[in-house]
Amino acid sequence: MKLKQVILYIVLFVSFTGLAQVKFEAEASKEKMGVNERLRVDFSVNQDGDNFNPPDFKGFKVIGGPNQSISQSYVNGKMSFQKKYSYFLQPNGRGKFKIGQATIEIEGQTYKTPYVDIEVTAAVNTPTEGTNPEIIAADNIHLVAEISNRNPYLNEGISVRYKLYFSPKVNVRQWYPKDNPKYADFWSQNIDIPQLSVKEDLYKGDPYQYVVIRETVLYPQKTGELKIEPLTLTIPVNVPSDRRDIFGRRLYETVERTVASNTQTIDVKALPTAGRPANFTGAVGSFNFKATSSKDVLDATESLQIKLQVSGKGNLKLFQLPKLKVPASLEVYEPEHQENVNTNLSGMYGNISDTYTVVPQLKGKYPINELNFSYFDPRSETYKMLTSEEILLNVENGPVNNTNPVTTSASGEVNKQAVASAPSQFRYIQLDANLQPANQQMFFKSIGFWTALISPLLLIPIGIFTGKKRKALAGNVEGNKSKKANKLAKKYLSEAKKNLGEQKSFYIALERALHNYLKAKLSIQTGEMSKDKIKDLLEQKGIDAQATAGFIKLLESCELARYTPSSKVEMQQDYDKSVKIISELDKQL
């Protein structure tokens, strides 16, 4: 028995050792290649790890990657796992090169791949990697960010236009945002593109087609060098393969390509200090300023409105209007602020205004002095001052303002004149109390007395019945969870339901509802998180894979629906899915 037990333990130990063994390998598509060929290098590991670092591909230029893929399978009850990082390389010249060691961390231990030897010879007549789908996709898809002005002033608007270039060799029908730039040092606003259109242009001298997929207006809030983060997209690309159909036509293969724009840098200039007006509040652009009154002639205690308005083009939402100053005899209330501002690729335009309600108390004529508004004009690089016209208010009827000076008589006594007041000034004081004698009837043994005495006794059986009912409802835990979850889902999705049939408004409201739900339940800022991070966070909270995948798919549907038409039936289906997913997430959370 002891010998058999020893053999069994040895077998189990060897088996577990084999299962736990980490295999981190590097594989090249060829060991010898022409200078006009492409090379694919795969780094694969059989366990999930962190902090993967690729080697320095000395002697090569990375033209694609990293493309990451994960595969899992069960064969005869045994699980196999593989994570692969793929790079596509182009040699810089002839010679013998070594692909360095990649590293990865697994359970606190660092693993390295072996070196890979590659020999690059003179150009070959027929390159063998020319039809590799990943290489074709990498060569023929490019995302470019165009900046309108790389040296703006502080608070001067600039635009970023993202163009997706693709050659006629491949087909692109849709794309999905994978990582959106955060614009941390900018005030930003995306510009709606109502209809995407395909245009033709040259990209590095070759004929390409392109689509403007996003336009964003930025107002820098800091000076110095600021970085604009790249936009990253995931794109299913149809590329030609080596296979043909029965009619000899080439068949296409779909590969997924991740493409990103380059990180852009702009140098923001500070506004000049020379000539800066004392009342300058940060307005940058080209503006007009005026002050208008709703009426010039009125009676005392009658109200009027005075509007201060700035109109034009510039950072309209990022500065303050001048404050209205009136004589002491005019009562003025806090202004109502209004913004009528639109944004296009050249920046904000429209008008903003503060409307004051003013009530004169006394008869007379009251001048409201002119007001000054200053702004910086980036075209002329100078500060400009605008002045409103003076407003004269004529209050015709009402108490007279006592403007006579105080005098002293010969005996030294002070002579004061009576101050006129409005007839209704003390109207709120009630002089006639109009009291009524109290009712002398006794409350004891009256109808009200017996009603108040017996009513609590009658409520006892009602309370017992209600308590049993609530206890029974409280015992139905699953039912209560479902009701609460459905109620919460419909609360967040109420705005989306109102916009059913209006595609753009519906999907914006639906996406906002999904993000607001996560913010409320998980106390996170979802505007700073990608779908991958949201997925990881939900998995950490114990949400099952099906519910997590459904939530992520809904977010992708909202993003895709901005660029592809959707019917009302599809919107209703997405709404129903959202109710179901939020309800399921809420029950699990």
TrEMBL record:
Residues 1-20 form the signal peptide. It comes from the Bacteria. InterPro entries: BatD. Pfam families: BatD. The chain crosses the membrane at residues 447-465. Keywords: Membrane, Signal, Transmembrane, Transmembrane helix. This is Oxygen tolerance.
